[in-house]
Write a structure and sequence with these properties.
There is one protein chain. Helices cover 28% and strands 24% of the residues. It is of the alpha+beta class and 345 residues long. A 5-stranded mixed β-sheet has the order 5-4-3-6-7, with helices on one face. A hairpin with an 8-residue loop joins strand 1 and strand 2. Helix 8 crosses helix 10. The protein starts with a helix and ends in an 11-residue tail after the last strand. The relative contact order is 0.10.
Length: 345
């Protein structure tokens, strides 16, 4: 009998572990988890099961994500407003050990102001709630059920009240294809019977792929002899790469001669998830790895300008004196801006 009980216990533990590692979706029940090494809390850990009866928002962030950090005072204020019915937990995407010694965290005035419980994400949470882009928010109702997966813009008092009251949220879903491997070719031969070539160099410019948000970064694969990169950007952000050495350009320094400015800059009343899905593009290339960094940078700049021209966008740069300081201004002109009809069979 003792052996049977032991076997059943081990089997039950195995099943629970397998479930805990499965990425959760909206409507799934959240298993118990523990966050340790917490800041701004008397206890050094938070156990999810002990939050029963409260709505929970998990805020995943990173030290290098400035918008995530800037949003923390708002989260702190919302926590104070709904103190009896809500628990916000902010989770840094970093190593659990010694994460509180991060110099940028210790120097930040924001971290000194907020009283939210701040901890580090762990392997269980990374498997339960995988993501690529930050910030990432998981909304859990009082019954421990996932109700929404969003960016920081959707975290408002109105939406939190709905979560607490058990109402439907109907928020844009922040869905991401976490398994996307930018080191692998984005394009390949799909024709049956066509033998793969020994190497394949190309560049491509396409509408964004649902769930794939790529920050970029050049990959140099010595085994294949290929330099490659894939990045997701809006048109103005591509212009920064092509004409401004990848330096940020202020929105007011763009002059738009276009039919619809909302295709270039997100209106305040539109959710980022919705806008990005309609107005960002995916640029990708594969080049021989003997090219120097300077040659690759020059290629990217010229190639992006070429692709923008293909879809009917031209860009010009002009230097102007503003209060005695020379500033660059960029004019975007649509000649015949259009994308292919994706409804054609």
């Amino acid at each position: 009998m003792k052996k049977i009980v032991t076997i059943v216990y081990v089997l039950a533990t195995f099943i629970f572990s397998a479930q805990a590692q499965r990425p959760l979706k909206i409507g799934d029940k959240v298993p118990n988890f523990i966050v340790t090494d917490i800041l701004n809390r008397k206890q050094s850990e938070i156990e999810f099961a002990k939050l029963k009866g409260k709505a929970v928002i998990l805020d995943f962030w990173n030290i290098s994500c400035m918008p995530c950090i800037a949003a923390m005072p708002k989260l702190d204020s919302l926590q104070n407003k709904f103190v009896d019915d809500l628990q916000v937990i902010t989770l840094a995407f970093t190593k659990e050990s010694k994460w509180k010694e991060e110099p940028r965290l210790r120097k930040s005035h924001i971290f000194k102001q907020v009283k939210l419980p701040i901890g580090a994400s762990n392997e269980v949470l990374k498997q339960l709630f995988p993501y690529r882009a930050l910030g990432h928010h998981v909304w859990i109702d009082k019954n421990g059920v996932v109700k929404a997966l969003t960016s920081y813009e959707e975290v408002t008092a109105e939406n939190i009240e709905k979560l607490i009251n058990g109402e439907e949220l109907n928020l844009p879903i922040k869905w991401e294809f976490v398994a996307f491997d930018r080191r692998k070719p984005l394009l390949t031969f799909a024709q049956p019977g066509v033998k793969q070539p020994q190497f394949l160099y190309y560049s491509t410019f396409m509408a964004t792929i649902d769930g794939v948000n790529i920050a970029g970064g050049l990959t140099d694969d010595k085994n294949t002899g290929i330099k490659s990169m894939s990045i997701t950007r809006s048109i103005p952000r591509f212009i920064e790469i092509a004409l401004n050495q990848n330096q940020k350009i202020k929105e007011e320094n763009f002059i738009l001669k276009v039919s619809d400015p909302s295709k270039y800059f997100k209106p305040k009343d539109v959710a980022s998830i919705t806008w990005n899905g309609q107005n960002t593009y995916l640029y990708s290339f594969r080049l021989p790895n003997h090219l120097s960094k300077l040659e690759v940078d020059r290629y990217i700049q010229q190639d992006i300008i070429k692709w923008l021209g293909v879809i009917g966008i031209t860009i010009s740069k002009e230097m102007k004196l503003i209060n005695g300081i020379e500033e660059a201004f960029f004019t975007i002109t649509e000649t015949d801006f259009r994308l292919p009809n994706t409804n054609v069979n």
